[in-house]
Amino acid sequence: MKVNKLSFIKIILLLCSLLLLQTFVNCEEGCQSTGECIRCTEEEKDQEYCKETNYKQQYKCTDLGEPKTIYKSCTNKTQDIMSFLAFVIPMALISALSFYFIKKKNKDHQNVHKI
């Protein structure tokens, strides 16, 4: 399977854009985020909104009259991006090194046949 550099870059950009797009999706109509995504405390770990990701975000909902404050599970975007980059950068380096050594081996192989 032959993947050129441009295809590889396109795939990385697509994954980054999908990750960033997720940050702009609102949870519900009538609810607005009033806080950042923060780690749940030890006391909150059993709450439904903390079980999935161990992070929570505060929302103020005004759907049915009086405002109500709720918490929803969220993901720490900075941590997600750092984890993503921690995977992608080494993979890009390994790919680049593999590409270089394969090219070098093919060139050496061609030089042997010329002699």
From TrEMBL:
<protein>
    <submittedName>
        <fullName>Jtb protein-related</fullName>
    </submittedName>
</protein>
<dbReference type="Pfam" id="PF05439">
    <property type="entry name" value="JTB"/>
</dbReference>
<dbReference type="InterPro" id="IPR008657">
    <property type="entry name" value="JTB"/>
</dbReference>
<keyword id="KW-1133">Transmembrane helix</keyword>
<feature type="transmembrane region" description="Helical">
    <location>
        <begin position="81"/>
        <end position="102"/>
    </location>
</feature>
<feature type="signal peptide">
    <location>
        <begin position="1"/>
        <end position="27"/>
    </location>
</feature>
<keyword id="KW-0732">Signal</keyword>
<dbReference type="GO" id="GO:0016020">
    <property type="term" value="C:membrane"/>
</dbReference>
<keyword id="KW-0472">Membrane</keyword>
<keyword id="KW-0812">Transmembrane</keyword>
